[in-house]
Design goal:
This protein has 206 residues and is an alpha+beta fold. The chain is built from 3 helices and 11 strands, in the order αααβββββββββββ. Strands 8-7-2-1-11 form a 5-stranded mixed beta sheet, with no helix packed on it. Strands 5-4-9-10 form a 4-stranded antiparallel beta sheet, with no helix packed on it.
Length: 206
C-alpha cells in the first residue's frame, strides 16, 4: 500500500543552477518524512499496538464490575471440619481484568433466599484473588486471610449442593452451582478449587 501525500522526487530540470540542489533537498525531506514509496518498511509491532483499548483497560482504578466474567469464583470452602461450619466458610474470587475492581454494591446470592451485598469499598486488584468469608478472625475461621467478611447470618454455603451468583446492578457477573459430587468435587474439610485451565466465567461452572 502506497503512503499518501508523499511528494515525488522526479521534478523537471530548468536552466537555473540552484534548482537541482533544491530538488535534492526536498527529496531528502520527503524521504525522511514518508519513508520508502511503500509502507512495507513500517514495523508491524507498532501497527499492532495502535488499537482501541477495551473497557477493562480504560475504565481506571477501583471501578465496579461491568461485564460478565470480570470476576469469577475460583475456590469454595463449604464444608469445614468440626461440629459447626460457622464461621469457617469462605469462597475466593478472581479479577480477570486489567483494572482494579471495587466490590462496593456487588451482591452475592444463591438461588434461594441467601444473599448479601458489599456495603463498603473493597478493592480487588487487577488479575488478583480475594477471599470472601464469614469471618476475618483467623483465630476462629481456620486461619484463612479474608478480604471481606459477610457474617454468619443471611448467607451460608450448603454442604452438599448450593449456588453462588455475583451480581452488580442486576447484571450477572458470574455463577456456579456445585452439586454434591455429580460434576463438582464433594470434599469434607477441603476446598473445591478451579483448575487453571478453566479460568473464565464460561468454563468455571462446567
Amino acid at each position: 500500500m502506497r503512503n499518501t501525500y508523499c511528494l515525488a522526487a522526479g521534478l523537471s530540470h530548468s536552466k537555473n543552477s540552484w534548482l537541482p540542489a533544491l530538488v535534492m533537498l526536498l527529496s531528502a525531506f520527503v524521504l525522511s518524512a514518508c519513508g520508502s514509496e511503500t509502507s512495507e518498511d513500517i514495523n508491524p509491532k507498532y501497527v499492532s499496538e495502535a488499537r482501541a483499548l477495551s473497557p477493562a483497560e480504560t475504565r481506571g482504578l477501583s471501578a465496579p464490575p461491568q461485564a460478565y466474567g470480570d470476576l469469577i469464583i475460583t475456590e469454595v470452602f463449604n464444608n469445614p471440619s468440626g461440629s459447626s461450619d460457622s464461621p469457617k466458610e469462605w469462597f475466593e474470587i478472581y479479577n480477570t481484568t486489567h483494572g482494579s475492581i471495587d466490590l462496593n454494591g456487588v451482591t452475592f446470592k444463591d438461588d434461594g433466599i441467601d444473599t448479601f451485598t458489599v456495603s463498603s469499598s473493597v478493592i480487588v486488584a487487577a488479575h488478583s484473588y480475594l477471599v470472601i468469608g464469614q469471618s476475618a478472625d483467623t483465630a476462629t475461621n481456620g486461619g484463612v486471610t479474608v478480604g471481606y467478611a459477610y457474617g454468619t447470618t443471611g448467607f451460608a454455603l450448603g454442604n452438599s449442593d448450593d449456588e453462588i451468583e455475583i451480581l452488580y446492578n442486576g447484571l450477572r457477573i458470574d455463577y456456579i452451582a456445585y452439586d454434591n459430587g455429580a460434576t463438582f468435587p464433594d470434599p469434607d474439610a477441603h476446598s473445591m478449587t478451579l483448575d487453571q485451565d478453566y479460568m473464565s466465567a464460561e468454563l468455571n461452572n462446567v
